[in-house]
Design a protein that fits this description.
single chain
């Protein structure tokens, strides 16, 4: 899907509509649950989220995609240079056309994008995390940043006040946006333990494995016993705390963004329920949310968007 140009070249890029359609198709193909949430947004915002999603996916594929073995620190340096070109309004690849337009419509800072690239750099030289503090930095870089990028598109309710007498300028739910990204990444980690193990990677903090007397070899062997179930319950509880923190910021978003964010949050957090239903076996079974449950989330999310 992703090819970095070895040198600048002149060629005809996709039209704006073609670029956005490409982003829509990639989002729909690779993140069905996320895509469902975007369909609840106004058109301009949904298209912008697709463009951001595809940039994030292309960034992730540099270290996790089919050509990841060829990725070096220099590859990521070139990718950051291409990012700077996009922020300057000069797209180099077809998907960049939509992202340039998105940045014009929904201006935002380049730093979260740079931080995401730094997260991919971590994957080049790390396959273990000793503590949750170390893992939390990684989660911020590869996912908390997405919360910041998305908030710039969602918008903030400028009439929001913590109290009638509060006349201060409303601030965006920055910490909550980061928390949602971290919660989603922790969910991904728990769902993909088996897949990551087959690539020699362990994202669960090693100090947590030691706490439950569960070894790396146990993980590579796919051992599901009471030690593992206790470890997974501990990790799921942590992820749900981040979801709870994130939910406190949804009411501060623009009204037309609350329903899709509530929906996306509810849909993704249900993966944790699926892990529990599978008796915490993430080695032989992939946890996912079934279609009927996805549909049931929508009216609940709508009610929350109106009442909370």
């Amino acid at each position: 899907m992703l090819q970095l140009p070895d040198s600048p070249r002149v060629r005809t890029l996709a039209s704006l509509e073609e670029s956005y359609e490409f982003c829509r198709q990639i989002t729909a193909k690779y993140s069905k649950t996320f895509y469902l949430g975007t369909l609840l947004m106004p058109e301009a915002k949904r298209r912008a989220i697709w463009a951001i999603y595809v940039w994030c996916r292309r960034t992730d594929e540099l270290v996790d995609g089919p050509q990841a073995a060829q990725t070096t620190p220099e590859t990521l340096d070139r990718w950051e240079q291409q990012l700077e070109s996009v922020f300057a309004g000069h797209p180099l690849e077809d998907p960049d056309v939509a992202l340039v337009d998105t940045l014009e419509r929904f201006p935002q800072d380049i730093q979260p994008f740079r931080d995401m690239i730094a997260g991919q750099q971590m994957d080049l030289y790390r396959s273990r995390y000793e503590t949750f503090e170390e893992l939390n930095l990684y989660c911020y870089r590869v996912a908390g940043t997405v919360g910041l990028m998305s908030t710039a598109v969602m918008g903030v309710d400028t009439t929001y006040r913590t109290a009638p007498w509060d006349r201060s300028t409303p601030q965006g739910p920055i910490e909550e946006a980061i928390a949602l990204g971290v919660a989603n990444q922790l969910t991904n980690i728990l769902r993909d333990v088996g897949e990551d193990a087959r690539r020699g990677r362990i994202y669960l903090p090693l100090e947590d494995l030691a706490l439950f007397n569960y070894t790396e070899q146990d993980l590579f062997n796919g051992v599901v016993d009471e030690r593992w179930r206790g470890l997974m319950r501990f990790q799921i509880q942590r992820a749900r705390k981040f979801y709870a923190q994130a939910e406190r910021g949804i009411s501060r978003l623009s009204p037309d963004a609350r329903w899709p964010v509530w929906a996306a949050t509810g849909l993704y957090s249900q993966i944790l329920n699926a892990i529990e239903s599978n008796q915490y076996d993430v080695f032989q079974q992939r946890a996912y949310v079934r279609g009927p449950r996805k549909l049931m989330c929508l009216p609940v999310a709508w009610l929350r968007s109106k009442a909370l």
